[in-house]
Amino acid sequence: MVHRDSTVTDTMVTADTAETYPTVARAAFDMNKIPSTNIDLGNFPFFPAPKGYQYRNVKLKDRGEEYFLADGKLLPVEGRSFKAELVREESRPAMFSISRVEKSFDRMIKSVGGVKVSTDIPTKAEMERVGDVEIYDKERGFTVGFGGIELNTYVLRNRGAEVWVQLSMNNVYGAICIIQKGDFVKNTKEMELRKDLSETSRTEFENAVGDSEEVAPATDTMLQQ
Question: pLDDT tens digits for 171-183?
Fold first, then answer.
């Protein structure tokens, strides 16, 4: 989906005014200010489409990159990537509701410890700084590429990993990108449980096979992921 080629996008991009691209000086984004949480997020991409909506043209990558807006700056984030259009379900032809979709994602993300870091429009200067090659040609601006539309950006810090979510919407449809940067670290209870299971399994195995030299239980393969 190349947003700059759409009729809606062309109209919005040409609206090059101070109101469309506000100039605001901000401090650099500080990830350390985002609180950490240990809440289980479930399976990637973690957040389903709201009721009455569906994901379309889904793109999943083990390693992808997207620009996210935080404190007025477009920041490149790399990791496991989910990108999709967000549309009404075919059985529900009613108009796309920006406010309803926004409230639904806001509730879902904040319920697991996420923080909204931006509700803003990228400035013209910031779009030019990153450039069309990065945003469009390299397909790193899936949500940014709407042009002149407010971006809703969220960040979660969870068990050593970061999860970035960005929404871009108009009155017809939306786009969402979710990136998991880094791997989740098992919490203390999970590690203790695995240790207990490992010790139990090893004891039971050794009791069953005795001291036979033909069997060497060096690894608990049943516990490996």
Answer: 999 999 999 999 9
